[in-house]
């Protein structure tokens, strides 16, 4: 059984998510806005948070930013807005998935279970440290530095980057990256991968050149 915090100002949305979550054996706590969600997270811990973007008092993005200051609980955002900008903003804040309303409750639960599975089953990297010029990747500590300065990445950026670095020089298809980083049971589209690659290149600065686009295939991390 997992503890889920559902944050949405619409009673109907909270109820339907709670119904499906309870059916699968999860325990659900509800919050009606971002402020309430922050207060609850300061008192309790959860396995995953499902949070709407547009809410009174404090929107979901702002609440996510505050929650991320003290915990890395996986977060799935819900929104009626499906524009790329909103998705990118959410991923930059460290969310794990972005679901556009209206959504299928059954599919949402499948996404929840997929995120929980990845969160609980993360493997410790076999390598310790990778170095290339002034780029240093410490797998164990989950720290990436460029020119001695630590680079802040979202949890999913770390997973994607670590996987690519550990497979340096290997052409990785889009399907391979999605299945290895998001899981075979990922229900999003491959634009999620492109969005994270874009964010990753932005984080790496001058070393963004190491992520090579293989047109029609996927990507490769290379230092040549």
What's a quick, concise take on this entry?
InterPro entries: CheY-like_superfamily (IPR011006), OmpR/PhoB-type_DNA-bd (IPR001867), Sig_transdc_resp-reg_receiver (IPR001789), WalR-like (IPR039420), WH-like_DNA-bd_sf (IPR036388). 41% of the residues lie in helices and 21% in strands.
Structure description:
- There is one protein chain.
- With 224 residues, the chain is of the alpha/beta class.
- The protein has two domains: 3-120, Response regulator (Rossmann fold); 129-221, Arc Repressor Mutant, subunit A, CATH 1.10.10.
- 41% of the residues lie in helices and 21% in strands.
- It is built from eight helices and twelve strands.
- It has helices spanning 11-23, 34-43, 60-67, 84-92, 105-120, 155-166, 174-182, 191-204, and strands at residues 3-7, 27-31, 48-52, 75-79, 97-100, 129-132, 135-138, 143-146, 149-150, 172-173, 211-214, 218-221.
- The strands form three sheets. The chain has a five-stranded parallel sheet, sandwiched between helices.
- Strand 4 (75-79), helix 4 (84-92) and strand 5 (97-100) form a beta-alpha-beta unit.
- The longest helix is centred in the middle third of the chain and has 16 residues, at 105-120.
- The protein is globular and about 55 Å long.
- Residues 3-116 form the Response regulatory domain.
- Residues 127-223 form the OmpR/PhoB-type domain.
- Residues 127-223 bind DNA.
- The modification 4-aspartylphosphate is found at residue 52.
- This is Stage 0 sporulation protein A homolog.
